[in-house]
Amino acid sequence: MEKLTQRSRMVVNKKMSFAERIYLPAVIKGMFITLSHFFKKKNSLNYPEVKREFAPVYRGQHVLKRDENGAERCTACGLCAVACPAEAITMVAAERQAGDEGNYREEKYAATYEINMLRCIFCGLCEEACPKQAIFLTDRLVNVENNRQDFIYGKDKLVEPRDARIDVSKRQVWSFAEGGTQ
To answer: What tens digit of pLDDT does each residue of 18-68 get?
Structure first.
């Protein structure tokens, strides 16, 4: 067997000069670096006054669209929930009777539709999977909340108001199937 040897290090207590003891060179060097940053271009924006432009393919808050009659387009097929890689979408289907919300025939609809915004990765796969073009990712920012439960968006936050239509035709949509923009 080999003999283990200990390594020893010699400690040198070198006498420090007066300038080194009062840290004067280090203080001067730090002040020089600080002063040099005063004259450089700033990287930050003054947010409330100046807002950053988003890319045309930016994906923000989700919205559930309405059809021409004012009823929700979603037929609760569940394709968006299946396509979601983060499993952020949950829904419960129900039957809508003829005459409800301007409906002229019986059809399925999402009785509850929830998106967990903390899980969502804003990939847009739910938007692509929807055969009725019921869900879109807009260019709006997701609101800041203080409670985790407030990040679970239900139909009250997702369905577009009856009087306002969100125009998503101007936004470029990235298509994974085609590998480019549409």
So the answer is: 877 888 888 899 999 999 998 888 888 888 898 888 888 899 999 999 888
Instruction: Enumerate residues 6+ apart whose C-beta is below 8 A from 155.
Output: 64, 72, 110, 112, 113
Closest by alpha carbon to 131, among 173, 179, 83?
83
Judge: domain 62-181, CATH 3.30.70.3270: yes
Q: Could you give the percent of the chain with pLDDT greater than 70? A: 82
Extended strands (E) in 99-157: 107-116, 135-137, 152-153
**Rounded-to-5 percentages of helix, strand, coil across the chain:** 20, 20, 60
DSSP secondary-structure letter at 141?
P
The DSSP annotation for 9-47 comes to -----PPPPHHHHTTHHHHHHHHHHHHHHHTSPP----T
Strand partners, 3: none
Q: How far apart are CA 69 and CA 103, in angstroms?
A: 8
Do the beta carbons of residue 125 and residue 84 sit within 8 Å? yes
Which of 98, 81, 100 has the alpha carbon at shortest distance from 89? 81
